[in-house]
Amino acid sequence: MDANEQPQAKITRSIVFVTGEAAPYAKSGGLGDVCGSLPIALAARGHRVMVVMPRYLNGSSDKNYAKALYTAKHIQIPCFGGSHEVTFFHEYRDNVDWVFVDHPSYHRPGSLYGDNFGAFGDNQFRYTLLCYAACEAPLILELGGYIYGQNCMFVVNDWHASLVPVLLAAKYRPYGVYRDSRSTLVIHNLAHQGVEPASTYPDLGLPPEWYGALEWVFPEWARRHALDKGEAVNFLKGAVVTADRIVTVSQGYSWEVTTAEGGQGLNELLSSRKSVLNGIVNGIDINDWNPTTDKCLPHHYSVDDLSGKAKCKAELQKELGLPVREDVPLIGFIGRLDYQKGIDLIKMAIPDLMREDVQFVMLGSGDPVFEGWMRSTESSYKDKFRGWVGFSVPVSHRITAGCDILLMPSRFEPCGLNQLYAMQYGTVPVVHGTGGLRDTVETFNPFGAKGEEGTGWAFSPLTVDKMLWALRTAMSTFREHKPSWEGLMKRGMTKDHTWDHAAEQYEQIFEWAFVDQPYVM
Predict the structure, then answer these.
(1) Taking a C-beta distance cutoff of 8 angstroms, is the pair 52, 133 a contact?
(2) Coil vs helix vs strand at 97
(3) Where are the alpha helices (DSSP H) in 291-434?
(4) Cβ atoms of residues 502 and 282 within 8 Å
(5) Distance of alpha carbon 105 from alpha carbon 117, whole angstroms
(6) Whole-model pTM?
(7) Where, if anywhere, are coiled coils annotated (predicted)?
(8) What is the mean pLDDT of residues 67-91?
(9) 65: which DSSP letter?
(10) Residues 39-59: pLDDT tens digits?
(11) What integer best gives the mean pLDDT of the chain?
(12) Do 75 and 140 touch, CB atoms closer than 8 A?
């Protein structure tokens, strides 16, 4: 095979992604990155791929759908006490059919799922419409001259799309439709499950006998008052018990969701389906994250010529107003300022860390308390600490390239992308050994069987002492063992973090799904 030739799948399929977001149209986190990149990678391998998502119009996002054309297809969806009309828009880009479900409930100010006052109160209604529309799209939309048909693989992402496998089992297969289709549930973050009061079940338009698939009872300690029975419906639980295969976004997370600590109440159900539960680490978009071509960087570099990285570090130090010193380790943090990301540990560690000859830069927004702490810490350590409150994509690229060490002390991290970006840019990650961080960062071992091994440091348990130990070990390696440090950088840069690698693993999951009969007929 020619080096530039795209590897092709052995068996090509019709694949339908259903998601609440996909970059570049709408994105609030990692889910948008995955659903914006994985479909393109699968299409490049020969599959026919459709992505179904809402057409969000909030004023600022309208331009993202400028090239999507009206299909003139309308459907009536029977749910929530009436019949609701939705329409479809379509854009063909990068060999993928991007299908946008249009309804007035997707046209409002704010973010995708809420505004300054919290989550939208009708999110259950909005994503019920999405799931019904996604089931109809392969049957009625003539894209490129012909429909996708019934022999599809539905890839449903998180709770927003979790009603799809339930609808296939309850409303389509009993009438001979979609008997040859399969569904794969991809869990990006188990913390969000789409839980609403049990009284809303009749609104979903499902047969009464299917209530058990979505039934959810909160434990007594989680109920509001003594008369609260804790009865609810749980969209994600419905997909867990009806999907043919279940995938999490890393192998470590696939184990964590089966434990009481990481299962968010679904651990026993997920344990019962362990035979069809797998983990696949997300990829990264090499077009956006490539130190040899990145437009956000002042200098470019590669694994064969790292001189540009030192120049990027000097430029970053100048930009931040820090002393320009090549010999001092520059540590970076990029992410939300909240409890999950371990900001409280960084806050406790900073006084000890600032006694060292080190520089530290943080980029992020979130909890106002942590934002205020970043500002006050910067004024206390003017030559060592910088806190950039807010978020800027170009700045995040320059921090990733300019830092020597990237710190990620997350309490849980289903996959994590920043550590992949860091390794791609020759920045050594120091992470808490959890979820996808443990899977992707191999702790440095100078005495490996084949010489030096590892791409960073993964510490555990999550304590300030352990985190400081890992950082000090990394800093001493940076200062005193330059050849070892360069080896760490190069091993990280040569790792295969591409979406093509992940797409190949998804193909194996799809093959296993079609070997078996549908889990629920």
Answers:
(1) yes
(2) strand
(3) 307-320, 343-353, 368-380, 393-402, 418-424
(4) yes
(5) 17
(6) 0.89
(7) none
(8) 95
(9) G
(10) 999 999 999 999 999 999 988
(11) 93
(12) yes
